[in-house]
Amino acid sequence: MDNKKVGIIGVGNVGSTLAYTLAHKGICSKIVLKDIRENIVQAMALDISQSANAAKSHTIVTPAKSGVDLKGCDIIVITAGLPRKPGMSRDDLLLTNAKIVSSVIEDIKIYAPKSKLIIVSNPLDAMVYTAIKSSGFSRNQVIGMAGILDSARMSHFILEKVGYGAGQIESSVMGGHGDDMVPLPNYSTVAGVALPEILSKNDINDIVEKTKNGGLQIVKLLETGSAYYAPAHATSLMVEAILDNKRKIYPCAVMLDGEYGYENIVGGVPVMLGSNGIEKIIELNLNNEQKELFEKSINSVKELANTLEEKFFN
Ligand SMILES: NC(=O)c1ccc[n+]([C@@H]2O[C@H](COP(=O)([O-])OP(=O)(O)OC[C@H]3O[C@@H](n4cnc5c(N)ncnc54)[C@H](O)[C@@H]3O)[C@@H](O)[C@H]2O)c1
Ligand SMILES: O=C(O)C[C@H](O)C(=O)O
């Protein structure tokens, strides 16, 4: 934790919950919070810092007064942007959030050009694309959070279905963080046993559909925004893996450069995370049906990237 500094830009539901989680885990010595809502960010920094002290964690949380306060950040998490509301898809946020994400990148380019970026803002894959294109950073520096969240949701629905194995469920979800995400039942296990050995096709299909709609289910219930506890925890795992060079493998959204047969497009794939950000991309042996589903998902992200190229980067 010595001298490790994490920046969080966008201190709303996800950003503040992430700051709280990181401060309580004590995995970095400093957290700096940046948001356009200046009073809120000051209040959040004080409150979270004080809660860390109560927990005897020595993480100090401060508000950023300007971009210069991002200096020295090892990792910057971007959670700035609008969340969707009922009746919206994540893709409806495309141009609004591209503007926000690329505007916050300006400070990062100046003050923390060597930091690793974890992108959370939606539509996730298109925002990773936006961050890479507007920063000019190498692809290993810019990583999107979604796969850990989607896999956690899948594990939740598996547990609901089978009724045992809590804490022993590993799930795998690939592709974009959208309606076409690709849950992989044959790479998902309960205590090491693959899902197709335990559940019927119908039960598995049900889990797959629930996983795809996991975000929407919460948006409909909350009415004012989207999920944040699971997203924040998922992001904290990525922060930890990079800061501590853990070389753990997590599903993350990254710019593909030939992997799985795609390039210059972002997709969710298993990635080894370490101090260089992306250490390695793992290529699974997908069957033909999974390859087709992955292609469909990548094509959806390509459509968003094309819109960005036409209407935003042009
Ligand atoms: N990748 C995922 O799996 C995932 C999960 C949950 C949420 N999200 C996305 O993360 C984003 C944030 O969600 P939330 O629930 O925290 O929303 P929120 O509305 O609670 O917080 C967003 C914050 O961004 C801030 N902001 C807006 N423009 C800014 C700018 N230019 N600079 C700095 N801060 C700025 C707002 O002031 C606000 O505090 C949304 O786009 C949401 O869809 C993604
Ligand atoms: O569903 C959303 O809009 C937020 C996020 O992407 C999620 O999956 O919870």
UniProtKB/TrEMBL annotation:
It comes from the Bacteria. Residues 5-144 form the Lactate/malate dehydrogenase N-terminal domain. NAD(+) binds at G10, V11, G12, N13, V14, G15, D35, N97, V120, S121, N122. InterPro entries: L-lactate/malate_DH (IPR001557), Lactate/malate_DH_C (IPR022383), Lactate/malate_DH_N (IPR001236), Lactate_DH/Glyco_Ohase_4_C (IPR015955), Malate_DH_type3 (IPR011275), NAD(P)-bd_dom_sf (IPR036291). Residues 149-308 form the Lactate/malate dehydrogenase C-terminal domain. Its EC number is 1.1.1.37. It is an enzyme of class 1 (oxidoreductase). Keywords: NAD, Oxidoreductase, Tricarboxylic acid cycle. Transmembrane segments: none annotated. The active site is at H177 (proton acceptor). The keyword Oxidoreductase applies. It catalyses: (S)-malate + NAD(+) = oxaloacetate + NADH + H(+). Substrate binds at R84, R90, N122, R153. The keyword NAD applies. One of its GO terms (molecular function) is L-lactate dehydrogenase (NAD+) activity. GO terms for biological process: lactate metabolic process; tricarboxylic acid cycle. Belongs to the LDH/MDH superfamily. MDH type 3 family. Catalyzes the reversible oxidation of malate to oxaloacetate. This is Malate dehydrogenase. It comes from Arcobacter arenosus. The gene is mdh.
